[in-house]
Specification:
Elements: H1 2-23, H2 26-54, H3 59-78, H4 80-87, H5 89-110, H6 113-140, H7 147-175, H8 177-194
Length: 204
């Protein structure tokens, strides 16, 4: 009896979550954009060590790279509210993706050691900031009663997209880590072109 009484509110929350997604189609577009650029950062995180090692950087330098990139992410995430107030949510989300993707492309084009070190570090920071901005913006648009369930439902999309992207990356890594960077650039461009984020998407 108690179990049935508890299941009722749960079904109501799930139903409200699905109704929220249906009534706001931009949520799916936002989820695709968020997921694809997140995967750009994930691929970069997976290959930055062999890339920097291939350029001759020592373990100490690679450790400093990790510390600096995470420190930048922490600082930028703490200033996310200021960034949004200065540039607007959509512009900040769009340009962090553009800058991050462009920096990865720069590494592929120039193939210079110090360019790789600096550009990849900045790219990770930009993509990390975008993830924070996106999460804040999406949660503001979802009713608090079903927010956790709606976000969980949207995150199921990430689980579906992760599999083919990871399988392709593992195959490409066996050929060259540069091919993984190419995959990351392709995902970033695809997200920007097919799932563009506009300010009206985030206006209440």
């Amino acid at each position: 009896m108690i179990s049935r009484q508890q299941d009722g509110p749960r079904r109501d929350i799930l139903g409200q979550s699905l109704r929220t997604i249906r009534s706001q189609p931009w949520l799916l577009k936002a989820a695709f954009s968020k997921t694809l650029v997140f995967l750009v950062g994930f691929l970069l995180w997976r290959v930055y060590q062999p890339i920097l090692s291939g350029h001759g950087f020592t373990v100490i330098v690679i450790g400093l790279y990790y510390a600096v990139s995470r420190g930048m992410m922490f600082f930028l995430n703490r200033r996310a509210g200021v960034i949004v107030s200065l540039f607007g949510t959509a512009r900040a989300i769009r340009w962090t993706a553009i800058i991050g993707t462009s920096l990865i492309g720069l590494v592929l084009c120039l193939n210079l050691a110090w360019v790789a070190l600096v550009a990849l570090c900045l790219a990770e920071a930009m993509i990390g900031l975008r993830e924070s901005l996106f999460s804040r913006a999406i949660q503001k648009r979802i009713d608090s009663q079903c927010r956790a369930t709606t976000v969980s439902n949207l995150n199921c999309l990430k689980c579906v997209v992760d599999i083919p992207v990871a399988l392709l990356a593992s195959w490409l890594a066996g050929l060259s880590v540069n091919y993984v960077l190419m995959e990351a650039v392709a995902l970033g461009i695809f997200a920007l072109v097919v799932f563009p984020m506009r300010q009206q998407d985030f206006d209440d």
